[in-house]
Design a protein that fits this description.
The chain has one helix spanning 104-109; strands at 5-10, 18-22, 30-34, 40-44, 58-60, 63-65, 72-74, 90-91, 93-96, 99-103. It is mostly beta strands. The strands form three sheets. Strands 2-3-4-8 form a four-stranded antiparallel beta sheet, with no helix packed on it. The protein has a three-stranded antiparallel beta sheet with strand order 1-10-9.
Length: 128
């Protein structure tokens, strides 16, 4: 395997209908999902709605339900299902000989500028 791909884990390390989080040096974690057909997908661990951790959602078919507000996010493209709108970045993933790989360049630079929104009212320090 070339440096183009980074080995993340074995397929069996990801629960069926579950996920595994991958920490990065910069940017938010990546969530790697496994469905009941042993297909593997990778998305930024952030719902496009309110920033819920998709890695804690329920996988069904080729979608994951956000644990905060039950938005359905497509695992193939990160797109929210209608009537909801929004998209979370997806990552290239490869399954080879029972091992899961993510594209190294994407791990290092894809969507590193995005942050998880903070829920609740914003507070500002006011100087008197």
């Amino acid at each position: 395997m070339s440096a183009e791909w980074t080995r993340i884990c074995n397929l069996t390390d990801i629960p069926v209908l579950g996920s595994r989080r991958v920490a990065r040096e910069s940017g938010m974690d990546v969530a790697v999902f496994r469905n009941s057909q042993d297909e593997v997908f990778a998305l930024l661990d952030r719902c496009p709605h309110k920033g819920g951790p998709l890695s804690q959602g329920i996988v069904f078919g080729t979608h994951v339900a956000c644990p905060l507000h039950n938005w359905s996010i497509g695992l193939c493209d990160g797109q929210a299902s209608l009537p909801d709108e929004g998209c979370t970045p997806k990552f290239s993933v490869k399954l080879e000989d029972g091992a899961v790989y993510l594209k190294t360049s994407e791990l290092q630079g894809h969507a590193t500028d995005l942050v998880r929104p903070i829920a609740g009212p914003a507070r500002r320090n006011v100087v008197a």
